[in-house]
Design brief:
By secondary structure, the protein is α+β, with helices and mostly antiparallel strands. 38% of the residues lie in helices and 14% in strands.
Length: 299
C-alpha cells in the first residue's frame, strides 16, 4: 500500500507537453540530465518507480523543469501556500486550547500577535547591541582563518593512458604539501559535486554490463576521460560510494573493489577497465564493470 504522505503531487502533464513541443525525445532528455528513460517517464507521469525517495525525485523534477525552461511554480504552484495555511490553523487551535474558556477568538489572536511583537522588539534590541560592540570583538573575527575544503582525492592515471595528469590533481597535490600555518590557501573545489547532480545508481537498473575475456590490467581500478564538464558517481562491491565533478578533458583513476557500478554521461566519456576501452552507446549512462580473473585466463 502506497503512503499518500510520500506522494509528490505536481502538474506532471506540462512536462511531456513542453518536451514534445520542443521536439525532444525522452532518450535525449535522459542523456542531457544523466538519467535513464524510465526516470524521465516517471517524472512525466508521476509514477512511484525510478527514484529511491520523493526527495531525490523532487531534485530531478527541478532539473527537468530547468532543462525544458519551465517555471517551477507552474509545476507545483500552491504546495507551500497550502502547507502554510494548514500550519497557521493548527497554531491558532493550539493557542485557543491554552487560554481560559469564554475568551473570543479575535481576542486570542490579538494576544498572540502582541506577544510576537514583543519578542521581535527584544530580538531587534539584542542585534543592535551585538553589532555596536567595540572594535575588540571585530579583532577576534580577524583571527578566524579559512581551513582547507575537503575534496575527493584523484589518483594518477597509469600507463594504460599515456596522457598527462590533470591540472586539478597537480594543484590539489601541491596545496596538500603546503605548511599548515598558511591556512588562507584553499584547495581547488572543482571536485565538489554539483548540487544539481542526482546520483541514483543504487535504485537504477544498469544499461550495460561489461567485461573482457582477455584482461590485461588488474580489476582494482578503472579510468575515465571526460570530454566535457560533467558529474559522475560510482559504487564498488563493498558499497563505498564516490562522487566527482570532472572538468573538460579531465582524467580520473578510481580505485576500489570490483565489480564497479558507474553513473556518467556516456556521450562525453571514455571509460577503461582492465586495460581495455569500454564501448559505450549514447544512452549507456549506468554501467556495471564485471572483473575477469587474469590468473584464470592465463591458465
Amino acid at each position: 500500500m502506497v503512503d499518500k504522505n510520500n506522494i509528490l503531487e505536481y502538474n506532471f502533464k506540462i512536462l511531456s507537453q513542453e518536451r514534445k513541443r520542443q521536439k525532444i525525445s525522452q532518450e535525449n532528455a535522459a542523456i542531457e540530465l544523466t538519467l535513464n528513460v524510465a526516470q524521465i517517464n516517471s517524472l512525466e507521469n508521476n509514477l512511484q518507480s525510478g527514484f529511491i525517495t520523493p526527495h531525490f525525485k523532487k531534485i530531478a523534477l527541478k532539473r527537468y523543469a530547468k532543462f525544458l525552461g519551465i517555471d517551477f511554480d507552474k509545476i507545483i504552484p500552491s504546495e507551500l501556500i497550502l502547507d502554510h495555511v494548514v500550519q497557521e490553523e493548527i497554531s491558532v487551535a493550539e493557542i485557543e486550547d491554552d487560554v481560559p474558556l469564554g475568551l473570543p477568538r479575535k481576542l486570542v489572536l490579538k494576544i498572540s500577535k502582541g506577544y510576537t511583537l514583543i519578542w521581535l522588539l527584544i530580538l531587534g534590541l539584542v542585534l543592535t547591541i551585538f553589532f555596536t560592540q567595540p572594535n575588540k570583538d571585530k579583532n577576534l573575527n580577524s583571527e578566524i582563518t579559512i581551513t582547507d575544503i575537503d575534496s575527493p582525492s584523484l589518483a594518477p592515471i597509469e600507463d594504460s593512458i599515456s596522457t598527462p595528469i590533470s591540472k586539478n590533481y597537480i594543484k590539489n597535490k601541491n596545496l596538500s604539501a603546503a605548511p599548515k600555518s598558511d591556512s588562507k590557501k584553499i584547495k581547488n573545489t572543482s571536485d565538489i559535486v554539483s548540487p544539481d547532480f542526482v546520483c541514483s545508481i543504487n535504485s537504477t537498473t544498469m544499461d550495460k554490463v561489461w567485461s573482457h575475456v582477455n584482461p590485461e590490467k588488474p580489476a582494482t581500478y578503472f579510468h575515465i576521460v571526460s570530454l566535457k564538464k560533467q558529474s559522475i558517481c560510482t559504487i564498488d562491491n563493498r558499497g563505498i560510494l564516490k562522487q566527482y565533478n570532472l572538468a573538460e578533458g579531465e582524467k580520473l583513476t578510481h580505485r576500489g573493489e570490483a565489480p564497479f557500478k558507474v553513473q556518467l554521461n556516456s556521450s562525453i566519456s571514455e571509460l577503461y577497465f582492465q586495460g581495455w576501452k569500454v564501448f559505450l552507446n549514447n544512452n549507456d549512462n549506468f554501467i556495471q564493470l564485471n572483473p575477469i580473473d587474469m590468473a584464470t585466463e592465463l591458465n
